Amino acid sequence: MKRLPMKRLICIHSVLIGLMTVVGCATQSDVNTIDNRLSEMEMRDIQQRQHREQLKSEFESYSQELRKQSAGLRATLEELNEDIRILSGRLEEMEYAFKQQQQTAADLDTSREAKLNSIAERVEENSDRLNRMDQYLNLESSKKRAAATAPAVPVKKPSSEDDIYRSAKQAFDQGDFEAARKRFQDFIKRYPNSKNADNAQFWIGEIYYREKWYEKAILEYQHVIEKYPKGNKAPAALLKQGLAFSNIGDTANAKLILQELGRKYPKSNEAKVAAEKLKTLK
Hints:
The chain has two domains: 6-79; 157-280, Alpha Horseshoe (Serine Threonine Protein Phosphatase 5, Tetratricopeptide repeat), CATH 1.25.40. Helix content is 83%, strand content 0%. The protein contains ten helices and no strands. The longest helix has 110 residues, at 28-137. The two termini are 98 Å apart.
């Protein structure tokens, strides 16, 4: 139900007073009652207008706050979108770099395998050359004549697994590398699954290393790395293989192998030695 404006109420009030006066039936009490009601209606109208103004002010304030929040959310959303674009770009860069590293590692492995094969070929060529030189100089005949003139010394051959290994290691410690090499090779041939097989293979590599035949030592160390990767001599074999490459001037492979040692056995003493050696390689 719509409320009448105050001006119309006042006009109606005046008309009613006039009619009541003309008719003669209006009393002062009736007039007062009408005045009071009109005053109440006027007060209610004022209060309603104030309430409407307050609601209008609150609505405008709320609308402004919503607009501010909306603008802030749009800015935040734009920032998030920008961050997502940046992260996507970085992810693509990381994926590209990772693929490049994989390709580089594959190339290095291929290069390393090719160099090892080349070294093996050179070792075989050197072995053939030495054999031909021995035959030419008749060194084998000289050795046989010396053996024939020397007094025969009975040698008791070791019979058990531990005895053979101990005998080979004793010859190594005494500097009799030729005897040690043969005994270690015989030990591996007889007992390929022995707990000391990796040690025997490592000492064969050590013999060639001490004889400064670094190419052959590299190949013997490689047998330790490939056949006994979980053995106690694997870190030492990697270290000595890296040093052997360094001794023949192949710095690239030396770095590669010493770095591989650090990755595979980071807590080993050999890894610490490798890290110090890497500082000197350029």
